[in-house]
Design goal:
17% of the residues lie in helices and 34% in strands. The chain contains five helices and 16 strands. By secondary structure, the protein is of the alpha/beta class. The relative contact order is 0.16. The radius of gyration is 18 Å and the shape is globular. It has a seven-stranded antiparallel beta sheet. Strands 14-13-12-15-16 form a five-stranded parallel beta sheet, sandwiched between helices. The chain has a two-stranded antiparallel ribbon with strand order 1-11. β12, α3 and β13 form a beta-alpha-beta unit.
């Protein structure tokens, strides 16, 4: 892939009728924590920055970066630059992937939202991070480009998908129509979302049911139908096991082909570093 070819490809997909993944040149940067704050009761937002952020690229809502951490013995094993990609050592270093929530090239800021949960390696690191804490960041390696030509958009997921859903809602055309479903524990995890007027946002409270075990998201999605003659795009992410029946639902009930939906496991209960299902996302 020639440098700059991804920009041409993005333009082609945006002008087309269906979504497609587009790879980017993969960067590697050492950034520092500029600040942190809670977003609702379930997300911790770290703002990263530093000179290495110059040239960072972000184009679509579901992009992710990989945060790289030292091994248990303190050794930091970084990937090597290999043309427009990165070459990783084996065994892989400790790392986790997170959605690019916001990038402000003028202010020199990159926001990453961490879903807090007990025992999570990266969320524990994020909770302890203070201004000046440094971390190496790889990516984004690419993203899902979806044209604005669909009649309806369905966005759905649990709190690990909320940063991407929030960015999706900001990026959609202001005249877009559709639905956004977000599973959270309770109202304290709800956040302000900049949804287009014709996109209905529904917060789904699972209550005392542990994350990754509730069926509130599936039940809510099965109540929605696409008006006859309209084209829809569906983006759904969250706990991998709970998403399996939704792949069949999107295919059989909504008639969506691979180019018209992405249903991806962001994490899997009981698995510390989940590699994702049908996607490159790892555990949040």
């Amino acid at each position: 892939m020639n440098r700059g070819a991804h920009l041409e490809r993005i333009a082609v997909v945006l002008a087309g009728a269906s979504g497609a993944k587009v790879p980017y040149p993969i960067g590697l940067r050492e950034l520092e924590v500029l600040g942190s704050r809670m977003v609702g009761s379930g997300l911790l937002r770290l703002t990263l920055g530093g000179p290495d952020l110059d040239g960072f690229e972000t184009h679509v809502p579901d992009e992710h970066v990989r945060l790289i951490f030292p091994d248990a013995d303190g050794a930091l094993r970084l990937p090597e630059r290999d043309g427009l990609s990165l070459k990783w050592s084996r065994p892989l270093p400790i790392s986790r992937e997170y959605t690019v929530r916001r990038h402000d090239p003028v202010a020199g800021e990159l926001d990453i939202d961490f879903a807090l949960h007990p025992g999570g390696f990266a969320s524990t690191w994020a909770a302890a991070a203070t201004p000046g804490t440094r971390v190496h960041v790889a990516g984004p390696p690419g993203g899902l480009v979806v044209p604005p030509s669909y009649d309806r958009y369905l966005l759905a997921g649990d709190i690990t998908a909320l940063p991407a859903i929030a960015r999706w809602l900001e990026a959609l055309p202001r005249d877009a129509a559709g639905w956004a479903f977000v599973e959270v524990a309770d109202a304290s995890e709800e956040i302000e979302l900049a949804a287009p007027a014709d996109v209905e946002v529904r917060w789904l409270h699972r209550g005392a049911v542990p994350a990754g075990h509730a069926d509130v998201l599936e039940r809510a999605l099965r109540t929605v139908t696409v008006p006859p003659g309209e084209r829809a795009y569906a983006w759904i992410a969250g706990e991998a096991t709970m998403l399996r029946p939704l792949r069949a639902w999107a295919r059989d009930e909504w008639g969506l082909g691979p180019a018209d939906c992405l249903i991806t496991g962001y994490w899997k209960r009981g698995v510390a570093d989940f590699d994702g299902e049908h996607d490159e996302h790892a555990s949040r």
